[in-house]
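Predict the holo structure. Ligand: pyridoxal-5'-phosphate.
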Amino acid sequence: MAVKALIMTGIEDRVAQGVEPGIFPDERGRFGVFGGRYVPEGLMAALLNLEAEYLLARADSSFVTELHDLLRDRAGRPTLLHRVPNFARTLQVPGLSVYLKREDMAHTGAHKINNAMGQGLLARRMGKSRIVAETGAGQHGVAVATVCAMLGLDCVIYMGAADMRRQESNVIRMQLLGAELRAVHHGGGGLKAAISESVRDWVANVDTTHYLFGTAAGPAPYPRIVRDFQTVIGNEARSQCLESEGRLPDYVLACVGGGSNAIGLFHAFLEDPQVRLIGVEAAGRGIETGDHAATLAAGSPGEMDGSYSYVLHDEDGQIARTWSIAAGLDYPGVGPELSYYKDTGRVSCRAATDAVALRGLQTLSRSEGIIAALESAHAVGHLVELAERAELPPDSLVVVGISGRGDKDLATAAQQLGHRGG
Ligand SMILES: *Cc1c(COP(=O)(O)O)cnc(C)c1O
């Protein structure tokens, strides 16, 4: 297949093949019972306007072409799908073939650039000159600041004060890229407070400003917009796998935080029932300890951040505090579309502990020379576990999403592996 078709934003080439995976969400922004818009009146108009503008952009071939060209020329797409035979050998499953989808090789080192570029271009098309975004670990903020620098947009990033102290190198990156950082001190100084501040700013400045949300969650239309901009991952992987192996994979694994890299990789395979889709969340110190972020595996449906979805609640029914060694997975919610596929059984929801992720990180680093992000290492570690439990049949063909690179995690890894005598 031509490279051009490989890196389309998603829907066009699949429609051309007679497959329309975009049946979701419905006109109310719902995936089954999940999703919707649980927001104050003041936000509703902004969301509905964004949805209308997005649908126009999506139907406009000049927008689709411009995004495709930007992803190719400035973000390094398509990313590699390559075989990792040394790693596969360590799993000791006869005939096993493992491929990695290398989002870590995209510009800025993670999949988040796909969504940031899509929404940045959308903002410019809508005549907006200013972007606001929240960031927790700083990865989304870096992707947004990068795209704003490229497209000449003003950039304001809200970040919890506590997060700013923990993620100093990303703070410096964002500042170098010309973003204005605004520290949020209330509400614990974390991601949740940063989201509220971004929304407040957006509503107050909606004529000039686009709110660039970072994962496939939140109120409609964000889960769908972010998913669409991330489906490029799976569309490429599907074509690349067919090209290399002449068949589809048996298993596709991805880590799940808010769910954007996972739904982006899974989406192209939804209509292929023989392909098993496995989402791997953070089991932290173990689900039984309560210190985890396994929302799909251990949560229950509820309303959070403007949408109805699986959520982690504590004993009093409040949003639970979470823990993961991977900052990008440390979130008590998850997007509505994955919530829906959990309930239908289309996506199998698993969780990997910090220790399993660290093993995944080490095994892949040593066998192949690839240092994955700790988030991605959850998917790698879970695959190692599946092999050990003899749950992978001989001759299986597996694709693992490597959502990002591990440079940001070196201090954490050193500390953890040091303690463990690794
Ligand atoms: C942010 C991040 C994640 C988690 O976000 P999703 O929306 O679930 O994809 C995973 N991996 C990396 C490298 C990240 O930066």
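Confidence is low (pLDDT under 50) at residues 1-21. The longest helix spans residues 222-245.
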